[in-house]
Design a protein that fits this description.
With 254 residues, this protein is mainly α. The chain is 56% helix and 0% strand. The N and C termini lie far apart (175 Å).
């Protein structure tokens, strides 16, 4: 009994499945009905085919019974055209027999004298000269020559321009600007002495001592007598060093 209990404990699930399969196979017998055999299948009514299916099958049978159409015959290939026979050249006799065109009748030449007479009798066409209108001459109006007035710089403008030139181009160029401006100024301008003195300073800075002493001489000549003494005192050391006669050269301006 212990062995049976051990077997049932291990394989009870398998036993249940086997019993269920047996009961499912004998379900009709367990329900009290007779099993369906060959007689039962024989008593069943035959299945009728729908009319639409019968019509389709009849059409397929009729189409299968009809003879298949004959394949189309391929047209025969065209025969190649015969090659043209070479034309033999005509003999010389036949060529000579061809009628030649008659030459045109010669035109009689005209005599040169007759041609000259015809040209003389022919009226000569005179060329038409174009009619041109006479040119209309405009009265000459004498234009007055407009002379632009010379613009003379004032001493202040000349001094300012020389200083700007000295900054941009050097003292030598500034001295040339003052020399050109002094030639344009009137001789009675009181600022001439200052301009000559400035020009002498530019020459002295540029190293041209001879031109500087000449400019100082011109400045002393333009100065009034009461203003010369102060300038002579300032110029005395310069003349002692750079003038051959020294400061004795300044005695003529006292």
């Amino acid at each position: 009994m212990a062995a049976v209990r051990t077997f049932l404990r291990k394989y009870w699930i398998l036993i249940v499945i086997v019993l269920w399969v047996i009961a499912w196979a004998n379900r009709d017998w367990l329900a009290g009905q007779a099993p369906a055999g060959e007689d039962a299948y024989a008593e069943e009514r035959p299945i009728e085919v729908p009319p639409a299916v019968r019509d389709v099958e009849a059409d397929e049978d009729a189409a299968a019974a009809e003879p298949s159409p004959r394949p189309q015959e391929t047209p025969p290939e065209p025969e190649p055209a015969p090659e043209p026979e070479p034309v033999a050249p005509a003999p010389e006799t036949e060529v000579s027999a061809v009628p030649q065109p008659e030459p045109a009748p010669a035109v009689p030449e005209r005599e040169p004298e007759a041609e000259a007479e015809a040209e003389v009798d022919r009226p000569t066409a005179t060329p038409e000269t174009p009619i041109t209108a006479a040119p209309v001459t405009e009265p000459v109006v004498e234009r007055e020559e407009v002379v632009a007035p010379e613009v003379v710089e004032t001493p202040a403008e000349l001094l300012s321009r020389s200083r700007s030139v000295a900054r941009s181009r050097g003292p030598g160029a500034a001295a040339e600007v003052l020399a050109a401006g002094l030639r344009e100024l009137p001789g009675d301008v009181p600022e001439r002495a200052d301009l000559y003195g400035e020009m002498g300073n530019y020459h002295f800075t540029a190293g041209n001592f001879t031109a500087a002493l000449a400019a100082y001489d011109s400045a002393l000549k333009a100065l009034p007598e009461e203003d010369r003494i102060a300038m002579l005192r300032r110029l005395a050391p310069i003349y002692d060093r750079y003038h051959p006669a020294g400061r004795s050269h300044l005695d003529q301006f006292r």
